[in-house]
Specification:
The protein is mostly helical. The protein has a four-stranded mixed β-sheet with strand order 1-2-4-3, covered by helices on one side. Helix 1 runs antiparallel to helix 2, helix 4 runs parallel beside helix 6 and helix 10 packs across helix 12.
Amino acid sequence: MFGKMDPSFTIWLNVLISLVTIVSFYWVGKKIFNTSIGLIASFLYGFSAMATNYDRILWNHTPIPLVSLGIYYYLFKFLDKRRLLDLLISSVLLGFMIHLHFQVLFVIFFFLFSLIYFGGRNVAKDLKVWIVIAVSIVIFIVPLLVFDFRHDFINFNHLIAFFFKSNRAGGGNILNNVVNISTIQLNFFREMLFRNSSLLTNTFSFGVFLSLIIGAYRKTKSEMSFVLLRNLCVSLILISTVLFSFYSGPLPSQYFLFMFPVYIFVWACSLNILKQSKFSLLFPIIILFFLITNIRPIWGNSDELSLEYKYRSVSYIVKDSNSKSFKVDFITDLGRKTGFQYLFWLQGKKLIDDMSVTTDKTYKIIIPYYLVNQNEIYRKFGGIGIVKVI
């Protein structure tokens, strides 16, 4: 696309996207809520080790937090002011997101639901609204259709496989899937602020999450903005949970990046309320804890996912196989599968990760471990979980 560009250009492009995203969180937070919430939101995104992990390389998921933030903000502006320009911007961003990842389907469902439910009959019956949306999306989807016609419908086949042809550890039962998805979403929400899972961090995160959903933030100066955040959050959670319940593949946390802007503002609003309450002394303590647990992974690798824990995981699988043949499936976040082939070679074993090969035993390596239901984890080494399938 850029011809004979210097490979370092992708680094600067990554930096540019990250900076624009940080500034956008401040700007949107200031516009919808207040300056304090905008500053906290941009601060959390800028120092979150989770966000940094996705920004370290340029890939199709990198712009999703920024693009989805723009979609939600301009959709809110349209529902509030009824200006077609705001709808046009939101629709164009939605069309662009189609080129990034299939998770745009959840955003499309939310987008249409919001227009019909929150917009009321006037919006639902306005032909100009649907023309703007249709034209914006068609402009972006036509190149994909042309590409599919020329390449044996590769995108369409991937879309079908995305929902119906994969196998998750212990998956298959829709009720179990709903529980798994809820667990992953809560862990995703928690890890934005707290890297380590513990009774304290999980309880605090769940309390913040539950407080928003039941409307504990209603009695504030920006009541309508907080009600908007609650409605947006609850709608996205319900839509993603329902749709993901039909999906049987592995669920790396990047599949939930479209939730990132909403969750960041949930944390920002919660911390801002805490700062203004009689428990305000807890605010600097939480911020300090956030910095301590997030800065180190930003400048290096997380200790819980270090080579030591990968080695211990491999050693356990080799020992547990008891000299029988085995294969290993991986459910991992971006870039966290590296090194395993070499580690198995050190143990005198060849890594078989082709699931079509027949072996005596099957294992799954989960990185990080919370990407599956915790009841499925047989052993845990740091942030790495082992699932014994057979």
